[in-house]
Structure formats: structure tokens, C-alpha cells
Design a protein that fits this description.
mainly beta; 4-stranded antiparallel β-sheet
Length: about 120
């Protein structure tokens, strides 16, 4: 069983920055694809950014050039650096781990609130 614990959310003014962290338990982090999703009130959960075990990344068009996903396999942690934040970035951000060991395993964190407001 894998547990994902997010941290780093909070209230920030437009144009500000935040860094989210997600720490994973267990031993499969380094072989897993990690991702950040977000869900705003009344909207569906959407992919924000993803990083593969090899370090390849992809981003939602809405955050390209502003957000950066990275991982530290030694610390079993994935990060999301968010710059130039906008009010429309306000959402609950969720960490996701996905791996293939015979079958697909997927785990979610509990979410961390990010609010962008003046």
C-alpha cells in the first residue's frame, strides 16, 4: 500500500508563487509515473502536470511556462513549482502515483488547497 501526503498549499496573491510537495511511502516511487491533478469547485478533476520515471514531463496548456514538475527519487518526493499564479489556478491539488507491476496500480493523495486571491 502506498500513501501520498501533499503539502505546500495555501493562500497567495495573483502573480505569486507556491511549491507543492508530495511524499510517497513504500518502495515503488522510482518506477512510477507521478502527476499533479486539480479540481476547482463545480469542475472535473484535470491533469496539471506529469513526470515519468525517466523524467519526461508534460503539462496542461493552461500552466505551460508557469508550472514546473520535478521529482527526487532519493526522497520519494514529487514537486510542483507554481509561478505567476492566477485566480483560475484556485483548486484542490492532488498528487497521483501510477505504476505497472503486472497490472496498473494507482494511488491518490488527500489533496491540498491552493487559493489565488487578492
Amino acid at each position: 500500500q502506498v500513501q501520498l501526503v501533499e503539502s505546500g498549499g495555501g493562500l497567495v496573491q495573483p502573480g505569486g508563487s507556491l511549491r507543492l510537495s508530495c511524499a510517497a511511502s513504500g518502495s515503488i516511487f522510482s518506477i512510477s509515473t507521478m502527476a499533479w491533478y486539480r479540481q476547482a469547485p463545480g469542475k472535473q478533476r484535470e491533469l496539471v502536470a506529469r513526470i515519468t520515471r525517466a523524467g519526461s514531463t508534460n503539462y496542461a496548456d493552461s500552466v505551460k511556462g508557469r508550472f514546473t514538475i520535478s521529482r527526487d527519487n532519493a526522497k520519494n518526493t514529487v514537486y510542483l513549482q507554481m509561478n505567476s499564479l492566477k485566480p483560475e489556478d484556485t483548486a484542490v491539488y492532488y498528487c497521483n502515483l501510477r505504476t505497472l507491476i503486472g497490472e496498473v496500480y494507482e494511488y491518490w493523495g488527500q489533496g491540498t488547497q491552493v487559493t489565488v486571491s487578492s
